[in-house]
Design a protein that fits this description.
- By secondary structure, the protein is of the alpha/beta class.
- Among the domains are: 98 residues, Rossmann fold (3-Layer(aba) Sandwich), CATH 3.40.50.150; 98 residues, Rossmann fold, CATH 3.40.50.
- It contains 13 helices and 17 strands.
- Strands 6-5-4-7-8-11-10 form a 7-stranded mixed β-sheet, sandwiched between helices.
- β12, α11 and β13 form a beta-alpha-beta unit.
- α2 crosses α3.
- The longest helix is centred in the C-terminal third of the chain and has 27 residues.
- The chain is globular, with a radius of gyration of 21 Å.
- It binds thymidine-5'-diphosphate and zinc ion.
């Protein structure tokens, strides 16, 4: 049953038993993993793409949640840009408040703080929030919902902007977010959020964007229907080149602003592309299985030929790839990653060791399986020596290939 409108949800893929994608394990935690069935469907009524079972929120977003937005120079630049855009388009003066839902290690808050913008971030991962606070940003530890929103409104006043990147789709009980926004947002304020675009995920074959945290996969049509249920209106939607293809949605109270032409344009595109059609997703599901058999065959051949393969980037996405296709340390002995919080741990479910980034070059492997494909340009430029001495990249979206 649809979590938004109670309509029937038709399943189009079952990616099997999956762990919490960011629960990197210490060896003594191997027996206490939480699993769920990662199946995805589309609501026949409101067209929202959503999971059929939800990983418990408390298993996903713990105090030691290891993801850090600031590790990517691309994301640092992106959020500096967001800060500039908010100042130029939404904020009248320094007194206007920006609240960020899911502020992680403060990659956006730091930019707002540097510009003298009044801001407050809220995030359940205490360690990431502490990193933001250490840089001078204003943060609270916790989930954003009616209670925390009311508490913020009571001490800080209403927010001119509520911003969120890649967070609100993570919350199956998304009604708690919108009720919180209703309590906190100024009458003429904007709720601006960014998220991966389901249309790009299907078109470009980014199947590994499906993992526990991405409970909903948004499209303009389904988001417009969703926000309307809570008394809001989608007034703008813009494509942004983040995580392989995302949209930035601008939502206001109903009737507060005129809807921009971008919304109708994207709705047209979506209708032509079939983003609300069940068959579009069935085809996508078959493509996922082809990638799996090709990738396992390639990794098996390389191992049998005595070649060394290393995983590059212990992404959340890699949990879906390794667990659904059954890729463990026998095929990929370790994954290197720059995030200290992930190093020395085992990847969730598949239990592939995560080693520091330096291990990549000690010595270079024959092949690197690029799990962090969304940072391909940044990583390939940085790793030119790997290729210069004969190394090759393995990519698997939209299909398996060596470059
Ligand atoms: P991200 O792309 O945000 O993926 P996801 O949302 O699927 O978790 O995470 C990228 C991961 O790759 C993160 O763990 C950091 C790592 N990484 C490197 O190890 N080296 C790099 O140069 C970059 C850009 C990222
Ligand atoms: Zn629905």
């Amino acid at each position: 049953m649809c979590r938004l409108c109670a309509g029937p949800v038709r399943q189009w893929v079952d990616l099997g038993r999956q762990p919490a994608s960011n629960a990197f394990l210490r060896p003594e935690q191997l027996d206490s993993e939480t699993f769920f069935r990662l199946a995805v469907g589309i609501c026949a009524d409101c067209t929202m793409v959503q999971q059929l079972e939800a990983m418990p929120t408390g298993s996903m977003f713990r105090a030691d949640y290891p993801y850090r937005s600031s590790t990517s120079s691309g994301l640092r630049r992106h959020f500096q840009d967001v800060a500039r855009t908010l100042r130029a388009t939404e904020l009248a003066g320094p007194g206007d408040l920006v609240v960020e839902i899911g502020s992680n290690d403060g990659v956006l808050l730091r930019a707002l703080h540097a510009d003298g913008v009044r801001h407050l971030g809220i995030d359940p991962s205490a360690e990431a929030a502490a990193a933001a606070a250490a840089d001078g940003a204003n943060v609270r530890v916790g989930f954003f919902d009616e209670q925390s929103a009311a508490a913020i409104a009571a001490t800080e006043g209403r927010a001119k902007v509520i911003f969120s990147a890649n967070t609100i789709s993570h919350v199956a009980r998304i009604d708690t977010i919108f009720r919180g926004v209703d309590l906190l947002l100024a009458a003429d304020g904007a709720f601006i959020f960014e998220d991966r675009y389901v249309s790009d995920i299907v078109e470009f074959g980014y199947f590994d964007q499906i993992y526990d945290e991405h409970f909903y996969l948004f499209a303009v049509r389904s988001v417009a229907a969703m926000v309307a249920r809570f008394g809001f209106e989608l007034v703008d939607a813009q494509r942004i080149p983040i995580h392989g293809g995302s949209l930035r949605y601008t939502v206001t109270r109903r009737g507060a602003r005129e809807r921009r032409a971008s919304v109708a344009r994207l709705l047209d595109e979506e209708a032509r592309y079939g983003v609300a059609e069940y068959e579009t997703y069935l085809r996508f599901g078959r493509q996922i299985d082809r990638v799996g058999s090709d990738l396992v065959a390639l990794l098996t051949d390389l191992r049998d030929a005595g070649r060394r393969v290393v995983g590059y980037g212990a992404t959340s996405k890699s949990a879906t790839v390794t667990n659904y296709f059954g890729i463990g340390p026998a095929l990929v002995p370790f994954i290197c990653d720059t995030t200290p919080e992930k190093q020395g741990r085992l990847s969730p479910g598949a239990h592939i060791p995560v080693r520091p980034y330096e291990a990549f070059a000690e010595p270079y492997p024959d092949y690197a399986l690029l799990f962090a494909w969304n940072h391909a340009a940044e990583i390939m430029a940085k790793e030119h020596r790997f290729v210069a001495q004969g190394g090759r990249w393995i990519l698997y979206v939209p299909h398996v290939r060596i470059v």
